[in-house]
Amino acid sequence: MIDKQLMQFFTDDHREADQCWATLEEAVNGGDQPAIRAAFDTYKSRMLRHFSMEEEVLFPAFEAKTGMSQGGPTAVMRMEHEQMRGMLEQMSTAMESGDAQEVIDLGDTQLMLVQQHNQKEETILYTMAQRMLDGDWPELSAKLESYLD
Ligand SMILES: [Fe+2]
Fold first, then answer.
1. Is 1 among the domain residues?
2. Is the model's pTM score more than 0.85?
3. CA 74 to chain centroid
C-alpha cells in the first residue's frame, strides 16, 4: 500500500536512487569486488525501475489527462531517460571489465544528468501531475505497487 501522495512518492524514489549511488561510491572506495558488484546492480535496477514506473504509469496518465505528448514535458523526460540508460550501459560495460574507477568517472557525468533531470521533474512535472492526477492517484498508485519489492 503506497500511503504517499504522487509528488512525495516519486521524489522519495529519486532520493533512494541517490542513496544507492552513494552506497556504490563507498563500495568502490572500500575495494571489495562482490560488494561493488552488488551495489552497482542495486543502483542500476533502482534507476531502471524508476524510469519504468514513470514511462509505463505516470507519463501515460499525464499525457492522457493533459493531451500533451509529443513536444510536451514527458517527451523531454523520456529522451533524458534514454540518455541516462545509455550511461548505465556504459557503466555496465566498465563493471564487466572490472574497471570500478571508470564506473565512478562515468558516474560524474551521470550524476549531473540525474540532478538536472530530477530537478525538472520535481519542480515542474510532479507538481503538475499531482494537481491534475489527484483523482487518479488511487488507481495509479495501485499499479505502481507492482513495481516495488
Ligand atoms: Fe524521475
1. no
2. yes
3. 14
